[in-house]
Automatic annotation (TrEMBL):
Pfam family, one: DUF4142
Gene3D superfamilies: 1.20.1260.10
Protein name: DUF4142 domain-containing protein
Keywords (A to Z) from UniProt: Signal
Phylogenetic placement of the source organism: Bacteria, Pseudomonadati, Bacteroidota, Sphingobacteriia, Sphingobacteriales
Domain DUF4142 span(s) in chain numbering: 29-164
rRNA processing as UniProt keyword: no
Keyword Signal: yes
Amino acid sequence: MKRYLKYCFAVLGTVILFLPNISAQEANRDQEFLTKAVSSNQFEIALGTQALNQSENEEIKQYGQMLVNDHTKVLEELEEAAMSKKLVVPDGMEEDQASILKSLSVLTGTDFDRAFKDVAVKMHENAIALFENASNNLNDEEFRSWAAEKVPSLRSHLEKAKELQVTSSESHISSHSMEGDSIETL
C-alpha cells in the first residue's frame, strides 16, 4: 500500500509540475491568434480606407466602406476580449501588410481596382484559414466559439471580393505577393 501511495504522489507531482507549462502554452496559442487576428483586421480597415480614398469605382468604394465598418467592429470585439483575458493587443499590422498598402498607394484607376480586388480576395482567404484554425484549435472555449462565428462573415466578404467588377487592366500587384503569408497552425 505504501508503494502505491508513493507511486500516486509521484504521478500527481509530475502532473502538477507540468500544469503551468500547459496553461502557458494555451495562453500563448490564444495570444498568437489574437495578434494575427488584430493585425488582419487592422490591415482590412486600412485597405478599405485606401479604396475609399483612391478608387473611382463606386462598387470598390462600397466594398471598402463595408470592410471599414465590419472590421472596425471585429477589432473592437478583439480588443475587449484581450482585456478580459489579459492578453496583449499589438500596436500595428505586420510589415508585409504595410508593404502591400504602400504598393497599392502608388496605383490609380483600374490598376488600383484590380490590385485591390486581388489583395481583398487573398486577404480573406488567409483570414478564413486563420479563423477556422482558431475555431478548432484554441484552448479558450469562448475564443474558439467567437472565431467560428466570424467565419461566415469572412466567407461573405470573400465572395463579394471575387464578384467585384473591374474593367480589364493588368495590375502591378499580383495575387502571388500575398502567397508567402502562411497560416501557421495554432
